[in-house]
């Protein structure tokens, strides 16, 4: 059980730290009692001693463990921890020796804390690199098995037999596995387009009403209520789409004489659109509110009606912000998983008919990574290749969106967007 | 080219009509969005409320020697197919634990079969007609009725709908959220404090800022890929465990906490900092003793909202394997577990119609928790928000 020595080690470091704290404070108090003026308070010396004991020890054990894991070596855990304890002891000695009148303990603590805080800030960067690194390395392995061009331009997605290939029995397979991602992207874009057709008109109009027409009371009430839509978990929307909306779509289509699949693309698209409405309305509302009133006053003074002012002055002025909000919404819709996993189909299908069954990138990622995991199988690795494309697309959408909103902000000198 | 007054005023009326039309259309859009919300909640309540009730039948339970071998013998043949199989299976264990039961016959309210439950609730049921008649008779005699469903709140998952409950998933959610909070809260607050109070305005800082904004917009499923490749593959942490799930969610929640903490720190006026510096505080002392306490309500609000979002997240957890079948309720960090949204996802895939009700019931519980959390955040903000 590897947890045991680790726990013991942490307790040991803690005890050492507390000891160093107490001893350093006692020493500082003694020095001060002898009448010498000191640069810092006794508690500050004590804190410095505690930090210099525990800090390096934790750093050494953490970084050491990570490096060994990176090199793939078996970790000699007891040795590593023992080494860290030696470092802790050395740190404690240093901390205690430094309890002298002319040592700036407070400034030293300040430097250490700044260091720790910057380290915490680095974690967000590590996360991004972690995502990039994990996706890219696995995706590269996939592209080595199946060509990049086949992946980008192929129109048949049939991963079925890659398990056999991984087991070295590829010859037994009746047909080879094929990874052409075009049908997946077609499905993704279809469902995203349906979602946008629902979300952008409704969200934008709702934002216009809230910012231009609504009495203050309605506005303060409607905004948080709309936000509730955004707070509902996506798995709940997925259930709603699969159980309530999809049969509804089928029966409506049936009454029109059309044949719809129960896994049609329309139901998840509509529900995803509903989910995204508050996203668009809230961002657009902020942007429309940021359009300077002088523009409205000028327009009204020229004899424009309220509707004309909104259509010809306010909305065009807010357009960069609205487009930016819509792009963010598109990137959310592309990466949305649970709604499509539960309501859209599993079968890759290249079609323009939203009533047919379609599947998306995220559905295939989930399908490839649930159940038995075999990291040598091309199907498992294909999830990372799909993830890489998803990452690239959403990242560029976000960047464009940020650039647009920055342009808007600079134009009207608003700072709270 | 000149127009008569009539023409001009007709044109004006038309323009005003257009203006009014825009107003009504935009109001219509808002109402449509709100109508979606109403329809959605009505649908969930209609489907989910029956899950809080459970059919029970009153039967004579014969704790005989034979029943401990063959549990079916414990109840009368007339009602044998109406009581829950799962409950019958627990009989021998009950008798082993309580030897004084042996040889007695007691009249007890016991769990009815899932199909009886569906029949009593007026749903489609696979019961045969003679069984339906027997159930009707039991109801008339007052020996079968719908009671509050304690099983749903106290048990783990089960393949039998009448025995399935959300407790193991709720436990998993609690453990996962503990991990998420323990990782995301300190790191998030420290990052925000560094960026707002310590960091010089240089390339490095800008890079971190851009990076955080990007992280907030990355699809959640990619965090799942990260968790799978880094935490499980590379560090070898146990798959399906709250530890891995919580850490994955923590990375996802981090940007939310950072952004809201920065807003809270920024809303503390500089005069506070100036005063503290003026009496000789160091930068860390200013932050620790003055800025952070004043910003705490805002930080808490943001963290609660981030936590609520993490609690409803499913996609990354599916990727790290937290959709396990967990029948036993246990508090664990390293063993396989499941969480509420994942349980909802699993149940929604069950072919048995009775699970639709369970799914909707689980959704109602999840939504109540989320609404409670968000309401707490709003109250916190209202109560402690200071305008400077």
UniProtKB/TrEMBL annotation, chain A:
| GO CC terms, sorted | plasma membrane
Asked whether the UniProt record includes Zinc among its keywords, one would answer: no
Query: Which positions are tagged coiled coil?
Result: none
Q: Which family does it belong to?
A: Belongs to the binding-protein-dependent transport system permease family. CysTW subfamily.
**PANTHER family, alphabetized:** PHOSPHATE TRANSPORT SYSTEM PERMEASE, PHOSPHATE TRANSPORT SYSTEM PERMEASE PROTEIN
Its recorded name reads Phosphate transport system permease protein
According to the lineage, what is the superkingdom?
Bacteria
Any one GO BP annotation for this protein = phosphate ion transport
Q: Where in the cell is it found?
A: Cell inner membrane; Cell membrane
InterPro entries for the chain:
MetI-like (IPR000515), MetI-like_sf (IPR035906), Phosphate_PstC (IPR011864), PstC_N (IPR022182)
Kindly state which keywords UniProt assigns to this record, in alphabetical order.
Cell inner membrane, Cell membrane, Membrane, Phosphate transport, Transmembrane, Transmembrane helix, Transport
TrEMBL record, chain B:
Q: Write down what this protein is called.
A: Phosphate transport system permease protein PstA
Q: Where are the transmembrane segments?
A: 21-42, 163-195, 215-237, 243-265, 317-340, 360-380
Cellular component terms, GO, for this chain's entry? plasma membrane
Q: Which UniProt keywords apply?
A: Cell membrane, Membrane, Transmembrane, Transmembrane helix, Transport
Q: Where is it located?
A: Cell inner membrane; Cell membrane
Primary localization class, coarse: membrane
GO biological process terms held by the UniProt record:
phosphate ion transmembrane transport
Q: Mind telling me which InterPro entries this protein's record contains?
A: DUF3333 (IPR024573), MetI-like (IPR000515), MetI-like_sf (IPR035906), Phosphate_PstA (IPR005672)
Q: Name one GO molecular function term.
A: phosphate transmembrane transporter activity
Cross-referenced NCBIfam families = 3a0107s02c
The family line of this record is:
Belongs to the binding-protein-dependent transport system permease family. CysTW subfamily.
The annotated topology with respect to the bilayer is: Multi-pass membrane protein
Q: Which residues form the ABC transmembrane type-1 domain?
A: 170-376
């Amino acid at each position: 059980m590897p947890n045991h020595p680790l726990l013991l080690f942490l307790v040991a470091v803690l005890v050492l730290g507390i000891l160093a704290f107490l001893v350093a404070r006692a020493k500082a108090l003694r020095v001060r009692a002898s009448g010498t003026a000191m640069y810092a308070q006794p508690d500050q010396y004590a804190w410095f001693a505690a930090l210099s004991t525990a800090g390096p020890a934790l750093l050494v054990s953490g970084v050491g463990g990570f490096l060994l894991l990176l090199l793939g070596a078996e970790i000699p855990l007891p040795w590593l921890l023992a080494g860290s304890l030696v470092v802790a002891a050395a740190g404690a000695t240093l901390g205690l020796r430094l309890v002298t009148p002319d040592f700036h303990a407070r400034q030293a603590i300040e430097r250490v804390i700044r260091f720790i805080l910057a380290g915490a800030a680095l974690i967000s960067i590590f996360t991004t690199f972690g995502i990039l690194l994990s996706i890219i390395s696995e995706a590269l392995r996939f592209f080595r098995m199946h060509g990049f061009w086949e992946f980008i331009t192929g129109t048949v997605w049939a991963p079925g037999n890659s398990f056999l290939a991984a087991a070295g029995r590829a010859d037994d397979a009746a047909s080879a596995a094929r990874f052409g991602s075009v049908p997946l992207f077609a499905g993704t874009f279809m469902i995203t387009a349906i979602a946008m057709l629902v979300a952008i008109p409704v969200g934008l109009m709702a934002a216009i009403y809230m910012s231009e027409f609504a009495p203050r009371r309605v506005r303060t009430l409607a905004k948080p209520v709309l936000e509730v839509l955004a707070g509902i978990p996506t798995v709940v929307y997925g259930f709603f789409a699969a159980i309530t909306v999809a049969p509804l779509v089928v029966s409506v289509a049936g009454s029109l004489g059309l044949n719809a699949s129960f896994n049609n693309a329309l139901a998840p698209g509509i529900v995803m659109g509903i989910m995204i409405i508050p996203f668009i309305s809230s961002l657009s509302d902020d942007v429309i509110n940021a359009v300077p009133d002088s523009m409205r006053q000028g327009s009204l003074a020229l004899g424009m009606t309220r509707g004309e002012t909104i259509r010809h002055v306010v909305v065009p002025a807010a357009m960069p912000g609205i487009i930016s909000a819509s792009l963010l919404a598109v990137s959310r819709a592309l990466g949305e998983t649970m709604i499509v996993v539960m309501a859209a189909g599993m079968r890759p299908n290249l079609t323009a008919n939203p009533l047919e069954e379609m599947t998306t990138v995220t559905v295939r990622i989930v399908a490839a990574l649930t159940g038995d995991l075999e990291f040598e199988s091309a199907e498992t690795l294909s999830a990372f290749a799909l993830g890489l494309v998803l990452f690239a697309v959403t990242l560029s959408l976000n960047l464009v969106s940020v650039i647009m909103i920055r342009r808007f902000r600079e134009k009207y000198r608003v700072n709270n967007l | 080219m000149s127009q008569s007054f009539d023409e001009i005023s007709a044109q004006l009326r038309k323009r005003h009509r257009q203006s009014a039309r825009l107003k009504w259309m935009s109001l219509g859009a808002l109402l449509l969005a709100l109508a979606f919300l109403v329809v959605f909640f009505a649908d969930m309540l209609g489907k989910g409320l029956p899950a809080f009730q459970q059919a029970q039948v009153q039967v004579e339970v014969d704790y005989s020697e034979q029943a401990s071998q063959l549990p079916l013998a414990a109840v009368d043949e007339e009602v044998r197919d109406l009581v829950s199989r799962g409950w019958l299976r627990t009989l021998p264990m009950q008798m082993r634990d309580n030897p004084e039961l042996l040889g007695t016959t007691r009249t007890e309210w016991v769990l009815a079969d899932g199909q009886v439950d569906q029949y009593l609730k007026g749903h489609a049921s696979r019961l045969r007609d003679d069984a339906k008649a027997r159930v009707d008779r039991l109801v008339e005699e007052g020996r079968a009725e719908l009671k509050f469903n304690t099983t749903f709140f106290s048990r783990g998952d089960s393949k039998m709908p009448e025995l399935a409950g959300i407790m193991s998933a709720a436990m998993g959610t609690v453990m996962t959220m503990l991990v998420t909070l323990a990782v995301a809260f300190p790191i998030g607050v420290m990052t925000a404090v560094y960026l707002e109070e310590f960091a010089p305005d240089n390339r490095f800082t800008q890079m971190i800022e851009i990076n955080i904004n990007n992280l907030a917009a990355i699809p959640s499923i990619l965090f799942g890929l990260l968790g799978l490749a880094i935490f499980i593959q590379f560090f070898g942490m146990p798959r399906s465990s709250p530890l891995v799930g919580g850490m994955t969610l923590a990375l996802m929640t981090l940007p939310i906490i950072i952004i809201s903490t920065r807003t809270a720190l920024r809303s503390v006026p500089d005069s506070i900092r100036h005063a503290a510096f003026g009496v000789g505080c160091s930068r860390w002392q200013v932050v620790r003793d003055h800025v952070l306490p004043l910003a705490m309500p805002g930080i808490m609000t943001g963290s609660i909202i981030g936590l609520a979002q993490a609690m409803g997240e499913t996609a990354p957890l599916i990727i790290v394997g937290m959709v396990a079948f967990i029948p036993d309720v246990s508090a664990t960090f390293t063993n396989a577990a499941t969480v509420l949204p994942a349980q909802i996802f699993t149940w929604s895939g069950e072919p048995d119609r009775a699970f639709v009700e369970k799914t909707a019931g689980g959704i109602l519980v999840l939504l109540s928790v989320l609404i409670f959390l968000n309401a707490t955040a709003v109250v916190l903000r209202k109560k402690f928000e200071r305008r400077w």
